[in-house]
């Protein structure tokens, strides 16, 4: 089973690229982030025509997550995270697909930092950690897939000085990510590239793609039961180089 996380940076603008990926690669599950679309604007018909069932949690102009499953309908488990009832941002969607718990998440960026946005990011990470502990207690194969907006290690970026003041690389962000892993989750891509140097994001500015000046912020974390099934993990980098592509590349894990 190939499970993909893909921040599309606008489902309407990027729909041709998404459909292209579904048709060419035919992954089993795709977790989308940054839909930038209200629920009623989600292109369910086009995705169904490509052979995928879908659940989505949209928000007009901002955020938004979805789970697509090839040849079947994802079963909804939870929309949003507990802990802040007033939080209306669409950033978490948890489903059951073929007996595996799969969550698509879009963690807050947190810039500028310090400030309210960074504080929200850290609170959101604690709420995610609480949900992750609950999932581990179920002792089932589970995958937390998404754009974490965290660069976990220095070798996960093309330039430490360039990112040093960014919320993605602050000690607090990294510490929260490490606490999540310490619960028992496996960073699948890191397990296959322990020396780093693998990017999932290239900014549109300053020729970042052409210079390969990227960093790794898209992660698929595996519960112990899912990690036992791990075959491989990687990045479908070539899709970032296509016309009018997202600034993220599809990032994936393959499980038995």
TrEMBL record:
Q: rRNA processing: present as a keyword of the record?
A: no
The feature of type site (Interaction with DNA substrate) is located at 248
Cofactor (UniProt): Mg(2+); Mn(2+)
* Active site (catalytic residues): 106, 147 (proton donor/acceptor), 248 (proton acceptor)
Q: Per its UniProt record, what SUPFAM superfamilies does this chain match?
A: DNase I-like
- Domain named Endonuclease/exonuclease/phosphatase is located at 4-248
Q: Name its GO BP terms in alphabetical order.
A: DNA repair
What residues bind Mg(2+), as annotated?
7, 34, 147, 149, 247-248
What does the UniProt keyword field contain? Hydrolase, Magnesium, Manganese, Metal-binding
Q: Where is this site: Important for catalytic activity?
A: 218
Q: What EC number(s) does the entry state?
A: 3.1.11.2
Residues at the site labelled Transition state stabilizer: 149
**What are the transmembrane regions?**
none
InterPro entries associated with the record: AP_endonuc_1, AP_endonuclease_F1_BS, Endo/exonu/phosph_ase_sf, Endo/exonuclease/phosphatase, ExoIII-like
Q: Which GO terms describe its molecular function?
A: DNA binding; double-stranded DNA 3'-5' DNA exonuclease activity; endonuclease activity; metal ion binding
Tell me the cofactor note.
Probably binds two magnesium or manganese ions per subunit.
Q: Which PROSITE patterns match?
A: AP_NUCLEASE_F1_1, AP_NUCLEASE_F1_4
The family annotation for this protein states: Belongs to the DNA repair enzymes AP/ExoA family.
For this entry, the protein name equals Exodeoxyribonuclease-3
The species this protein was found in: Sphingomonas abaci
């Amino acid at each position: 089973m190939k499970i993909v996380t893909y921040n599309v940076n606008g489902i309407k603008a990027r729909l041709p690229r998404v459909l292209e990926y579904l048709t060419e690669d035919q992954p089993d599950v795709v977790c989308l982030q940054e839909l930038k679309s209200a629920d009623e604007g989600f292109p369910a018909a086009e995705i169904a025509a490509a052979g995928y069932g879908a659940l989505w949690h949209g928000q007009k102009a901002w955020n938004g997550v979805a789970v697509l499953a090839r040849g079947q309908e994802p079963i909804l488990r939870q929309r949003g995270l507990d802990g802040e009832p007033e939080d209306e941002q669409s950033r978490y969607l948890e489903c059951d697909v073929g007996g595996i718990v799969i969550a698509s998440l879009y963690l807050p960026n947190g810039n500028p930092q310090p400030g309210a946005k960074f504080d929200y990011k850290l609170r959101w990470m604690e709420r995610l950690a609480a949900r992750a502990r609950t999932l581990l207690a179920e002792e089932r194969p589970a995958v937390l897939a998404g754009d974490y907006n965290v660069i976990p290690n220095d070798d996960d970026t093309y330039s430490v000085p360039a990112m040093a003041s960014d919320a993605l690389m602050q000690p607090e962000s990294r510490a929260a990510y490490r606490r999540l892993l310490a619960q028992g989750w496996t960073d699948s891509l890191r397990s296959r590239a322990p020396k780093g140097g693998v990017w999932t994001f290239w900014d549109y500015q300053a020729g970042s793609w052409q210079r390969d000046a990227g960093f790794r912020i898209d992660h698929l974390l595996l519960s112990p039961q899912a990690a036992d099934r791990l075959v491989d993990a990687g990045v479908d980098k070539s899709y970032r180089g296509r016309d009018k592509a997202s600034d993220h590349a599809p990032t994936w894990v393959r499980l038995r």
